[in-house]
Structure formats: structure tokens, C-alpha cells
Write a structure and sequence with these properties.
It comes from Pseudoduganella albidiflava. The protein has 317 residues and is mainly α. The protein has 15 helices and no strands. The protein starts with a helix and ends in a 5-residue tail after the last helix.
Length: 317
């Protein structure tokens, strides 16, 4: 799903114009590394379990903003940014910011409370949310293969809701909806990935400041937290959020979308591995079957271009 976010329609040419044949192996490594990093990042947030998830979200917003400002200054990305911030672009990224907050907060909560299978499921179904929203709101075409894949997803989600009592169903529904919706919004903007995320974190930082000013809530850390481990990890939370995006941008600049699409298997699979091996999360046979069904549906989507080319190449009868 990050593939579609980083390499979205209308992105700045400097982000996507590199030839697909240049640096293919490093680009493949960067794409896989970004997904693995995201998948294993649950363990990072788990180490911060002594801090409330809402407080962690606040620190993630502030430190992500600081990291993005530093990265964009280093790369010279601020030049001309102001001229691209039209009212429409700002509105798109303000809406995207709300989805980011929901996604980040839910992911942190799931990582701390041991519901990593659910977060993996959320990222697995996100492409289908994007397809459904694209068809309903943006008029994207719905092929028979896409309809079949969506039918499989709906059946799998219903089966999990009815039969997988060990899951926190709201987690994968929120992550899937926010990440899929986020991908759709990113198709509507002309900003590159870093500039877009900068706008979104600015919006979130402003909302955070208003929230702190209007309530008795603070971002003060509990007195009983382990020192210096927790403060050091907190200081790294901005880098943890921005580094995968940078790796994906490297991959997206050098790889075709047909290759980037296969990375969508890596993050959910890594999350399932982390849940089973590190969290020892209990997973029913029904959940595993539904996971496999969604994998199959995602495979159907990725095979669509090949099927279309094959059918188009058939000689006329």
C-alpha cells in the first residue's frame, strides 16, 4: 500500500522519473527493507508500553515533524513548496492527516496490547479499501477480477467477525480503512511523499497543540518509566516513522508498479510472523484461513495486468 502512496499519480517528477533499469537491486532491497522495518516496528512500540498510547502518538507527531523538516532541509525540498500549497492541496492533506492519526494511534495501541495479527490484517485489506473507495468516489473502473477479489475480502472479513473471537476486529477495520483511504487521497495531490507527509504532520501538530491547550492533558512522561531506555526510544520515534517512507521512495523511483505491488505481501506477512514468534499471539485456524484467503485475493489483484495482457494478446478467432 505504501507503494501506491509513494508513487501516486501526479507526484513530483524527481520522485518517479528515474529509469526502472537503474539500480534495480538496491531498489528491491530498499522496498523489502521498508516493509520489514514497518512489520518489525511493532516491537519498537511494545518497548514503550510504559507510556500511554495517546502520549506516544503525540510524541510521534512532534518528532516526525522535526525529522521531516531536517530531511527536507537536507535534500533541498522546501524550494517552491509554498507555491504548490493551493487550497485544494491543503484540504486533501488535512483530511489525510486525520487518517494518519487514526492509523498511527491504532497501530501503536495494537503493538502495545499484543494485537499484531489484527494490524497485519488491516494492511492486507487496505488495498481493497482503496479500490472500493476509488470505484465509488473517483469513478475508477471495476473489472471482473477486482469484483471477485473484493467478494473474497468481504467473505473473509465476515468469517472473522463471526468466527474469530480472539481478534479485536476494530483494529484491522480501522487500519484497513485509514490506510486505504489515505492511499486514495494521495492520488489526488500533486505533492511528493515527503512534502505531503510534512503538511500532514504540521496539521497534526497544530491539532495536538490545540488539544493540549484546551484540556488538562499533558505529554509528561510517567515518573516510573525506565531511564534512559524509554527517552532514547522516544527520541527515535520520528526516524522510525520517516525512514520507511524514504526507503519506499527510493524503491518507487526505480521499480515499476508491477514489482512494487508484490511488496504489499511483505508487511502483513512480517506482522503475522512477529505476532506468532515474538508476541505468541493466539490465532485460530479460522483466522489463518481468512488470512490465506485475503492473500489469495491480493494475488488476484496483482495478477490482473498479466491476465489483461494475456487476454489482449490472444489472436482473433
Amino acid at each position: 500500500m505504501l507503494a501506491s502512496i509513494v508513487k501516486h499519480k501526479g507526484a513530483a517528477p524527481s520522485m518517479i522519473s528515474t529509469s526502472a533499469g537503474t539500480g534495480t537491486l538496491p531498489a528491491m532491497i530498499a522496498g523489502v527493507a521498508a516493509n520489514l522495518f514497518l512489520g518489525f516496528s511493532s516491537l519498537f512500540w511494545k518497548e514503550l508500553a510504559s507510556v500511554a498510547p495517546a502520549t506516544l502518538l503525540g510524541y510521534r507527531i512532534v518528532l516526525s515533524l522535526a525529522t521531516l523538516v531536517a530531511v527536507m532541509a537536507l535534500l533541498g525540498r522546501f524550494q517552491g513548496l509554498g507555491t504548490r500549497l493551493t487550497g485544494r492541496v491543503v484540504a486533501i492533506h488535512a483530511a489525510a492527516a486525520l487518517l494518519v492519526a487514526g492509523n498511527w494511534g491504532t497501530f501503536i495501541w495494537a503493538s502495545i496490547h499484543g494485537h499484531v495479527v489484527e494490524s497485519g490484517l488491516g494492511y492486507l485489506i487496505a488495498p481493497f479499501v482503496a479500490i472500493a473507495v476509488g470505484a465509488l468516489a473517483l469513478g475508477d473502473p471495476m473489472t471482473w477480477l477486482r469484483k471477485g477479489a473484493l467478494a473474497v475480502i468481504i467473505a473473509a472479513v465476515l468469517a472473522m467477525v463471526l468466527r474469530s473471537g480472539e481478534l479485536q476486529h476494530w483494529v484491522y477495520l480501522v487500519i484497513g480503512a485509514t490506510w486505504g483511504g489515505y492511499a486514495c487521497l494521495k492520488k489526488l495531490t500533486t505533492l511528493d511523499a515527503f512534502s505531503g507527509l510534512l503538511c500532514e504532520t504540521v496539521v497534526l501538530a497544530a491539532l495536538l497543540a490545540v488539544s493540549l491547550a484546551a484540556s488538562a492533558t499533558t505529554m509528561r512522561l510517567p515518573a516510573a518509566i525506565p531511564w534512559p531506555a524509554v527517552p532514547v526510544l522516544l527520541a527515535l520515534s520520528g526516524l522510525v516513522s520517516v525512514l520507511p517512507l524514504w526507503l519506499f521512495s527510493l524503491a518507487a523511483a526505480r521499480l515499476p508498479l508491477s514489482v512494487m505491488g508484490f511488496f504489499q505481501f511483505v508487511l502483513p506477512t512480517t506482522q503475522l510472523f512477529v505476532a506468532l514468534v515474538f508476541y505468541r499471539q493466539a490465532v485460530s485456524a479460522n483466522t489463518l484461513l481468512c488470512f490465506a484467503a485475503i492473500w489469495l485475493a491480493l494475488g488476484m489483484l496483482l495478477a490482473e495486468p498479466l491476465v489483461r495482457r494475456t487476454l489482449g494478446a490472444r489472436p482473433a478467432a
